[in-house]
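Progress note, sequence design subtask.
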């Protein structure tokens, strides 16, 4: 079966009389003893349905295992917990800033050592891999929209004995399957495209390595950063339409990127050619702030991957690195009519 079919059909109760079509929301703090579930922090049937569906999309024919978490950053923290004191994490200088802040926090407390790299410089990244225990990748990167050569970096990292993790939030499993390119772990902020409606926070880790899965499952059991059953249900409901939403957002983003490239006020358009995320660079922060405060349709908000178009000037956040231009606006293109999106956007740009 192809991904659009899988997204609709995987993670459902069996087709048997009186079974519901959708997995119910199981509200349970504990289970009657004697089975495998035991307690609400260890297992929940609504999580399991979501995990089966996301594992199926990331794993394809070869399959995979998935663990869901309370948020994307909860998943990130469990992965970074694989690294021992004084071991090196190679990470992008431009990445989701919650991840880079988490790395900096761990480093400041002597828990890990971090080497930041320019993801687009494959030779520099592969050289940095030599001392690494874990290589963190994000491609396309947030918000610079840079691409990494995942296969080449994974090969170098494995030669050095390091784990390779790819944050696949921007691309979604429909546009990129990092496990097939050599990643050991895929991390998602399911808050974004997977749930897709800006109404739930959730995260996930996907892997084909059963031993690694067991280690991470034990970490989740112990640390307790579990999703609520209703959140898992909403995320699964969102995942059913992921292929449709990604297709439409990508078509809109492609067209907006084309039009923006011809606009005299736009200094640079960063669009990797796939997906619904893009960044534009305007002349300065003031011009960018006028845009983000003047639109009617585009929502000024810090998230992405929802059905509604959103944008923000990333340097409004103190934690965003100074190598991100002051006038860079990150656009999360939604599924609205592209001409309405264009009219609203262009009205906020200098003519
Ligand atoms: C939002 C985001 C995260 C963090 O996810 P939360 O669900 O907000 O905790 C991680 N990585 C990327 C690329 C993101 O965009």
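Output:
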């Amino acid at each position: 079966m192809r991904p659009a079919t899988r997204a609709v059909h995987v993670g459902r109760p069996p087709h048997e009389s009186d079974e519901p079509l959708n997995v119910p929301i199981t509200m349970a703090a504990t289970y009657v003893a004697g089975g495998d579930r035991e307690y609400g922090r260890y297992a929940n049937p609504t999580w399991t349905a979501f995990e089966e569906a996301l594992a199926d999309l990331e794993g394809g024919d070869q399959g995979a295992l998935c663990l869901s978490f309370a948020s994307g950053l909860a998943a990130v923290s469990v992965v970074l917990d694989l690294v021992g004191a004084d071991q090196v994490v190679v990470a992008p200088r431009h990445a989701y800033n919650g991840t880079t802040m988490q790395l900096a926090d761990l480093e400041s407390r002597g828990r890990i050592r971090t080497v930041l790299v320019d993801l687009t410089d494959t030779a520099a990244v592969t050289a940095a891999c030599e001392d690494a225990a874990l290589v963190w990748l994000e491609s396309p990167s947030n918000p610079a929209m840079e691409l990494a050569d995942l296969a080449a970096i994974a090969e170098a990292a494995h030669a050095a004995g390091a784990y390779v993790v790819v944050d696949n939030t921007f691309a979604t499993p429909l546009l990129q399957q990092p496990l097939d390119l050599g990643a050991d772990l895929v991390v998602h902020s399911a808050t974004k495209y997977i749930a897709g409606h800006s109404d739930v926070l959730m995260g996930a880790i996907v892997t084909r390595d059963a031993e690694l899965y067991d280690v991470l499952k034990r970490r989740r059991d112990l640390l307790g950063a579990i999703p609520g059953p209703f959140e898992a249900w909403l995320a699964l409901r969102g995942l059913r339409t992921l292929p449709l939403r990604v297709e439409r957002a990508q078509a809109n983003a492609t067209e907006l990127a084309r039009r923006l490239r011809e606009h005299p006020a736009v200094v640079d358009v960063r669009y990797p050619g796939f997906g619904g995320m893009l960044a534009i660079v305007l002349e300065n922060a003031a011009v960018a702030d006028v845009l983000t405060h003047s639109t009617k349709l585009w929502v000024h908000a810090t998230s992405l991957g929802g059905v509604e178009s959103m944008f923000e000037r990333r340097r409004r956040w103190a934690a965003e690195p100074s190598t991100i231009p002051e006038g860079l606006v990150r656009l999360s293109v939604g599924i609205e009519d592209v001409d309405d999106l264009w009219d609203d956007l262009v009205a906020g740009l200098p003519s």
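The two ends are 49 Å apart (CA to CA). Work on this subtask will continue into the next period as scheduled.
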